[in-house]
Automatic annotation (TrEMBL):
Residues 45-330 form the Protein kinase domain. Transmembrane segments: none annotated. It catalyses: L-seryl-[protein] + ATP = O-phospho-L-seryl-[protein] + ADP + H(+); L-threonyl-[protein] + ATP = O-phospho-L-threonyl-[protein] + ADP + H(+). The keyword Transferase applies. InterPro entries: ANXUR1/2-like, Kinase-like_dom_sf, Prot_kinase_dom, Ser-Thr/Tyr_kinase_cat_dom. It comes from Mucuna pruriens. One of its GO terms (molecular function) is protein serine/threonine kinase activity. This is non-specific serine/threonine protein kinase. Its EC number is 2.7.11.1. GO terms for cellular component: plasma membrane; plasmodesma. The lineage of its organism: Eukaryota, Viridiplantae, Streptophyta, Embryophyta, Tracheophyta. Keywords: ATP-binding, Kinase, Nucleotide-binding, Serine/threonine-protein kinase, Transferase.
């Protein structure tokens, strides 16, 4: 199981809009728990209830009478600046309300100890669901392709919400499969436990003018856009890039950074886009999905991966990603329905003459008939 890092790392971008909650005490925005309440919820912070974390940061599964199962993060602040930062982040997190974002329940401050209380999400992380305990894929039942599409759509909705659906725009900055939690219905929820001590080689990196990166920020380099290594700047499009890596992870069922049998470290995006594999479904897809992805769906999905991993100015917004993924799911469901009715698994894609937004989908192998589906902005109309 991947460890939970230590602090939330949602970040707001600068805005001229006055937020009436900016100076509201956080006690008026979310519940402040006492240390005694959290002790009781975790049987005195019993080691047997630790579900994640490392070093001075621990995540406990607890139980509160009013809320039921909760996840409680415990860590220490080391300076007055970190104490101010903690309160600022709680203020942000408690105002995020979306089905695809893990809700913050409350917090606690006691001397140097800090606690954040979240809903407990029962099905673990997408990372564990894809890769299994200790990276042993045999320990988990592979997700179906449509389950994976639903998860990607949910994550896209959550990211679109924090980017554009809040009074103050928020960047996640730690989008990765271990920060995507799944509930009992496999509905994804964005979480972020993403700040630990940063890598020594990053100590001299200048702070960007528009994004305040903490001195202890640890980046998961396999998910970070290449531009950051040059500019030191992050933006909403950085989250889009990271999501593109997650989409590849979902498709290939390989970790974002994995080791070859020879011990070489390989980044997934480089592996998937080398000259031998780029765009060839059979060479990169999870073996459990072979023969189960409709070519039309694959075309849309892989194009979206490419766009997310493109240069900053060419990347889509998460709203665009969400819409196209929903269209990919529609294409898959249509192909599956026809194949189930008529035992016709073969599907090909043809673009209409002069067509841009629209696509003709030819579903073949249906006896003497040939069924055509005309898709316009994701709306299918079956024609004989």
């Amino acid at each position: 199981m991947k460890p939970f890092p230590c602090l939330p790392c949602f970040t707001t971008t600068k805005s001229n809009t006055k937020n009436k909650n900016h100076f509201t005490p956080i006690e008026q925005l979310c519940h402040r728990f006492s240390l005694a309440q959290l002790r009781a919820a975790t049987n005195g912070f019993s080691p047997s209830l630790i579900v994640g974390g490392e070093g001075p940061c621990q995540v406990y599964k607890g139980h509160l009478k009013a809320q039921g199962p909760v996840a409680i993060k415990r860590f220490k602040t080391k300076s007055p600046a970190e104490e101010i930062e903690f309160r600022a982040e709680v203020r942000i997190l408690c105002q995020l309300h979306h089905p695809n974002v893990v809700p913050l329940i409350g917090f606690c401050e006691h001397k140097k100890d800090r606690f954040i209380v979240y809903d407990y999400v029962s099905n673990g992380s997408l990372y564990n669901c894809l890769h299994g305990t200790n990276n042993n894929n045999n320990n988990v039942v592979p997700l179906s392709w449509k389950q994976r599409l639903h998860i990607c759509i949910g994550v896209a909705r959550g990211l679109h919400y924090i980017h554009f659906g809040t009074k103050i725009p928020v960047m996640h900055r730690a989008v990765k499969s271990s920060n995507i939690l799944l509930d009992q219905n496999l509905e994804p929820k964005l979480a972020d436990f993403g700040l630990c001590k940063k890598h020594p080689q990053e100590e001299s990196r200048p702070k960007p003018p528009r994004v305040e990166l903490r001195e202890n920020l640890e980046l998961s380099l396999e998910y970070i856009e290449p531009e950051y290594c040059i500019t030191g700047r992050l933006s909403h499009k950085s989250d889009v890039y990271s999501f593109g890596v997650v989409m590849l992870e979902v498709l290939c069922r390989k970790e974002a950074c994995f080791f070859t049998p020879g011990g070489d470290c390989v980044y997934l995006f480089k592996w998937a886009f080398d000259d031998e594999r780029k765009g060839v479904l059979e060479k990169i897809v999870d073996p459990s999905l072979k023969g189960k992805i409709a070519p039309a769906c694959w075309e849309v999905f892989f194009e979206m991966v490419q766009r997310c991993l493109a240069s900053v100015e060419e990347r889509p917004t998460m709203g665009e990603v969400e819409l196209l993924l929903e269209n990919a799911l529609l294409l898959q469901e249509t192909a599956d329905a026809v194949a189930e009715r008529e035992n016709a698994p073969v599907l090909s894609v043809e673009k209409g003459v002069g067509a841009t937004e629209q696509t003709w989908i030819t579903l073949k192998g249906i006896g003497s008939d040939c069924v055509m589906a005309w898709f316009w902005m994701g709306e299918p109309v079956m024609q004989s």
